[in-house]
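Example record

One chain of 332 residues, shown exactly as stored in the release files.
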Amino acid sequence: MAKLGDWIDPRPTGIYLPAADIWIDPSQPVRRALVTHGHADHARGGHEAVWATPQTLAIMEARYGPQSGNPVAYGERISMHGIDIRFVPAGHVLGSAQIVLEHRGERIVVSGDYKRRPDPTCAPFEPVPCDVFITEATFGLPVFRHPETHDELDKLLAALRANPERCVLVGAYALGKAQRVISELRVMGFDDPIYLHGALQRLCDLYVEQGVDLGELRPATGVARAELQGRIILCPPGALNDRWSRRLPDPITAMASGWMRVRQRARQRNVELPLILSDHADWDELTRTIRELEPREVWVTHGREDALVHWCRLHQVKARALDLAGFEDEDD
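Predicted C-alpha cells for this chain:
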C-alpha cells in the first residue's frame, strides 16, 4: 500500500517533487523552484526558473535582480507532470502563499510561513482542507500567545505622547514587519509623517507600488534633531543601537517582534519598549488551524517542532518533524 504523500520528498535543502523535477523554497539555487514568499530564508536568488505570486517575484527582483519568473495569481491552477498546483494566500507578508499540491487523489498543503491575524498589507490566510498539512512552528510553544495588535501599538503611541521631546525608534524587519507597523498605525488614525532608515525605503516603496497605502514617509537621515522630536522612526533591528541611532533625539528604543514575549531577548537588544507583534501564527493559531483543516497527517518544520508534533499526537493526528535546513526567524 502506498504511503501517504510518498510523491513528495522533504530534503534538508527544501521540499522536492520528483515527478515534476521542481523544488519548493529551496535553500540553494536549483533549476526550477516554487517560492512561497519573499523572505530570504524561503526565496533565494540564482534559480533558473521561479514560479511565485507576482508580488513575491517583485520582491525577489528588488532583492536579487531580474528573475526568470512565472507569475501565478492566487487561485490560478497550473499543472506539472500530473501534479496540480495552485497558490492561495498565507497572510504572512505581501504576496505570501500556501502552495496546494494535488496528485494521486491526495492533497498536500505547503503553508510556508503564515498568520491568522488581520493584516492590512496582505491577503488573509485561506484555509484549505487537506490530507497532509506542512506547517511552520516558529512560535510552536504554548507560551507564545500574541496579544492584540492595536493594544501593542497603543503602547507605542502612549510613549510618544508622554515624551514629546524624544522620539520612538522602532526596530522592524525590512520586509513585512516595517510596512505592517506603518499600515496598522494608519488604520488607528495616526496621520503624522513616519520617518525611515534608508534600508527600509526600497521595500516600502515597493509596497506602495503594489497598492498598499503607507501614508507620508520621510527619510530619517540628514534631518535636524529638532524635527525628529515627537516622531516615530523605523529602522532595521540591527540599527537600534548602532552609531546611526545616536544622532536621534534621546530615542525610546522599541522592537516589533513576536520574540518580545521573551524578556531576555528584549534585554539583549536593550529594548525599552517591547512590542509583541508577529507575522507568524502563535500557539493557539497553529493548533486552531490544524483542527480546522482536519488533515490526516501534519508535517512540522522550522521552529519548535517537538511541541507541536506532541500536541498533534495527543489529539490523534499523525505528525512528524521535517529536517529542513537553512531556515531562520529573520528577527520576527
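Notes: The two ends are 42 Å apart (CA to CA).
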